[in-house]
């Protein structure tokens, strides 16, 4: 086992090297295999002649990055080239994003598979489901593996016990720093020209929180969009049901008045969008309509189609791509499978959190169903 482990770790770090050539003479990546309680680290020494890798057992005093995974993840990396389970990582951001890009990102074949399996889906309605009525294995099979969106109506007991209001957000979360999208951000989204400013959440709410959409202007209200959820918020957040909590660590929050919006795009991770306050109206377009929408790749995990407006029935593409509309009310979560295009609009003051699942989408890489209840 030990020599096989060494070979696996050596191969993983070798695959990461091209993206972490940072000129340092030595890089150390620590691994912990959770279920075996094994620790080993890979040392990369750089000389004028190239890079030499060696694997040592035990713990290094000052690793550049630490990666915690399981024996099953190592087997998956060796056979499938990707992990399915939750992987915790700390340390150097370039090393961690290299690990994510290399072992936790969907392949072009995986993307094509999602576009293919959604081709045969029929029905213009999104199911509204209850946590009590489905087991995790049912949910994974019927929705996640089938790439079918669903609204989960009763997944937020903590939020229901202590509902949020704009005043409570201001007083309890107001110190969080937020990046606010300003100007005509929907037109410039994901471009370098998109304007943003950094504020405290309380300042943002004071200046824009309860503003109304200005229909006379093209510019939408500034939007505190896609900010990383601070760690202490995880204490009161309701995690998505049906999936392991460890997969849900990559959460973002979205706060803004009526009229704030995120134009049409798709993410290549399975996602739960959780509505804490207010209401959003969401247009969904099936992955198989990608050829109609000419998505523009922003990075491996996101494609933008912000020139297509699925809410405008006159738009030349809208009628051909059969958008499905969902109203997401406070207390509800939308399961949004990887690859589904979505255009999201706040119809009132709104506070949402989305949880990207840190694994290859279920529709491409199913879990071992026997381990789910
Ligand atoms: O709520 C929004 O404005 C956008 C959310 C979104 O795009 C997502 O969860 O992927």
From TrEMBL:
<dbReference type="InterPro" id="IPR041667">
    <property type="entry name" value="Cupin_8"/>
</dbReference>
<dbReference type="Pfam" id="PF13621">
    <property type="entry name" value="Cupin_8"/>
</dbReference>
<dbReference type="InterPro" id="IPR003347">
    <property type="entry name" value="JmjC_dom"/>
</dbReference>
<protein>
    <recommendedName>
        <fullName>JmjC domain-containing protein</fullName>
    </recommendedName>
</protein>
<feature type="domain" description="JmjC">
    <location>
        <begin position="218"/>
        <end position="373"/>
    </location>
</feature>
């Amino acid at each position: 086992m030990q020599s096989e482990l060494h070979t696996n770790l050596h191969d993983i770090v070798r695959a990461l090297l091209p993206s972490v050539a940072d000129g340092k003479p030595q890089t150390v990546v620590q691994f912990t295999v959770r279920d075996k309680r094994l620790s080993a680290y890979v040392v990369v020494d750089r000389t004028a002649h190239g890079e030499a890798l060696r694997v040592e057992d035990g713990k290094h005093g000052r690793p550049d990055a630490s990666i915690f995974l399981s024996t099953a993840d190592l087997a998956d990396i060796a056979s499938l080239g990707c992990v399915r389970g939750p992987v915790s990582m700390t340390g150097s951001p370039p090393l961690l994003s290299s690990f994510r890009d290399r072992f936790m990102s969907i392949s072009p074949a995986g993307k094509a598979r999602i576009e293919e399996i959604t081709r045969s889906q029929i029905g213009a309605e999104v199911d509204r489901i209850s946590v009590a009525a489905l087991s995790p294995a049912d949910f994974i099979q019927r929705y996640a593996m089938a790439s079918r969106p669903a609204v989960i109506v009763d997944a937020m007991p903590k939020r229901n016990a202590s509902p949020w209001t704009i005043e409570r957000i201001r007083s309890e979360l107001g110190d969080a720093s937020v990046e606010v999208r300003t100007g005509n951000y929907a037109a410039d989204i994901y471009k370098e020209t998109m304007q943003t400013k950094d504020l405290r959440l309380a300042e943002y709410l004071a200046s824009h929180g309860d503003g109304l959409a200005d229909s006379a202007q093209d510019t939408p209200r500034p939007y505190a969009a896609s900010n990383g959820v601070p760690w202490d918020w995880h204490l009161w957040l309701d995690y998505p049901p049906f999936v392991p909590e460890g997969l849900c660590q990559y959460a973002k929050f979205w706060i803004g008045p009526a009229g704030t919006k995120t134009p049409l795009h798709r993410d290549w991770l399975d996602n739960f969008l959780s509505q804490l306050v207010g209401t959003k109206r969401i247009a969904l377009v099936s992955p198989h309509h990608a050829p109609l929408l000419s998505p523009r790749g922003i990075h491996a995990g996101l494609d933008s189609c912000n020139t297509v407006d699925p809410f405008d029935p006159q738009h030349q593409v809208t009628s051909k791509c059969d958008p499905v509309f969902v109203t997401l009310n406070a207390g509800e979560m939308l399961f949004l499978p990887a690859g589904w295009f979505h255009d999201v609009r706040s119809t009132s003051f709104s506070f949402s959190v989305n949880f990207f699942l840190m694994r290859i989408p279920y529709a491409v890489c199913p879990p071992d169903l026997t381990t789910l209840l």
